[in-house]
Amino acid sequence: MYDVTFALAIILGAGFFIAKLGQLVRLPSVTGYILAGVLLGPSALNLVSEETITEKLGHFTQIALMLIAFGIGEHLEISRLKRSLKSVGLIGISETSGAFLFVMLGTFFVARVSGVGESGRTLQDYAVLALLFGAVSVATAPAATLHVMREMKAAGPLTTTLMAIVAVDDGLAIIFFGIAMSAARQIVGAGGGSMAVAIISSMTEIVASLMLGIITGLIIDFVIHRLNRLDEVLTVGLSLLLLCGETARLAHFSPLLAGMAVGFTIVNRDRRDVRLFRVINRFEPPIYVLFFTLAGAHLDLSALIIAGWVGLVYFLLRALGKLAGCSFGGRLAAAPEKVVRYLGLALIPQAGVAIGLIFLIRGDAVLGSYASIIIPVVLGSVVLSELTGPVCARIAVEKAGEASVGCGVVRPSGPAILPKGFRPVEMNRIELIPWNWTPLEPAENSYGQVIFGLSHTKTGPSLARFTTLLAHYYCGTPTAVHVLSPQNETEAEAMQSKTRELTQKVACEVESLGYSADVKVITHENVAKGILSAANSQKTWAIVLGHPHKSTSHEFNRIVDAVAKDAPCQVIMVRLCGVLHTERILVPVVDLKNLKLLGHVIRALCGAGKHIITLLAMVQSDALHEEIKEAEELLVDWVQKEHLIPHVRCRAIATEARVEAIVQEAHDHDVTVMAASQMHGLRRIFFGSLAEDVAQNCRKPMLIIHG
What we know:
The protein has 3 domains: 65-283 and 301-399, Na+/H+ antiporter like fold; 447-574, 3-Layer(aba) Sandwich (Rossmann fold), CATH 3.40.50.620; 577-702, HUPs (Rossmann fold). The protein is α/β, with parallel strands linked by helices. The relative contact order is 0.10. The strands form 2 sheets. It has a 10-stranded mixed sheet, sandwiched between helices. Strands 1-7 form a two-stranded parallel ribbon. Helix 20 (460-474) crosses helix 24. 61% of the residues lie in helices and 10% in strands. It is elongated and about 100 Å long.
């Protein structure tokens, strides 16, 4: 086959057609693709030559590997995994170790006894084969497992644990494989040095691969966040992803680990913009058809017959290792009995990652000679596991009693195209709607103060309003703090005139709400220290700071960070934009722990005027209907506990991109209230800040609460 275009047409068409035929008898699509490859390849009709498979179409394998690894990273979301960290950790390590040890020992014994492979194989060769078989056996097939869970609308302890396990399973497989490859090279004498050197070398490779992926993920997240069109997101994201993979390959790093780290980084950013995952999902089907069909074309039927016993042992011992490991790890973690008994059954499927790993072995200059045995064994096992695995997963769910009926899956509700107003904020106009509700009644015995920074005539009255609402809640006094730097006499007189103008405006606003404002003028060369000195002079309930009127200021961010670090109370940053009215208030909630930080502000707003507050839970785009309902119920429980039912509404939505979803919801509200990121340093750089991202793109007033 000399025409690559014709080969592509034949492979795609045959893969699709045979997969459809297989579906008539309920065979997984992956099995159909592999069978199509076998039929087209050198072992059967020879419509696709060895040269076409290995040289002319080899780059599609590299693309597919990066897409698979990238998709694995999406499932490694810390917020999901940490809920069951102990059980997932113990079970994950146990079942991967079980499969690795069972397969490694079993295949070594059978290969040695049966003398599989070319004549002249040594004990060392069988040890390398066993080590590589063990490493590949760790991988599962997340797509197959997740498909069964969605199809059965499963929900419960087994399903929750299974979702977490399949998320970490292939990540562990890639790490196992990286170490096994380095150790195998050492065994055959190509690594040089001692085993300690080999281990250090492999760990260095793993760390370097992860760092490359993390850096690429941060770059992708930074770029696509600024793109509105999905075609642009796909183009830029895919180009950077493939560049990462090729860089890893040229640097002798692991492309799979790097790709996984890219996905991990993007999905764990605070703004969680997963549009790239979704648009790639729509782009990747033909790539996957090529990948699995080419994998089948690599299958040498004669070699499959020769490696028959090893293949059977590999399949059986892998399944046994998964079952035993899940049972052992589940008991160690004190998991529910249904998890201990049935989880292993749901981990039988094996496909994409395992096939990717054997391709890496085939392309390795040192270990490529072992591929003639490993490829038919693993592909044969993949066919068997894809035939039996989904059935086993279905049985596990049914036995555990977690199959649901009539409960639909909620699809992503995040906007495919960014809202029209999604662009950097231009704070050209600030307008304050007068307070038309009943004036507030100050407490007879007020105690303490709520202070706000006073620096600009346009922002002062708005800050005064929020401060007064908080002071009413705390039964304190709204206090304006104006920090002046040391001046000469002439400059001091000019500043005093400006201060009088500022205080008159804020005093009028505070009085319209029924309160009287205190004013403190502090002379200090450091604004943050000046504000803190006012806060420490007496009991202070909260500090309100207004964002600079004209533009984002790094100096202001430093002031906020400095005040928040040493403040004796909460610090509330107010970003003003456009018209300020406080009737409809949006409070996005990513983590229920945020409610502890947001609680005082929510209660303060409920206790004055006729504010209507919407608590909006943000859940993952692939969340089940039950998960969305549970998130909403948790918000309702909190509202009931706080006795805020008349004032607060609760909603939960699934979204692909948090920033875009919040910005879209903010269009129908007057003010958005969010918790600031509690992370600092490198963690802040890695995870980012959802509140700051929203503030940069939302054209409505915002309150950002620092703990």
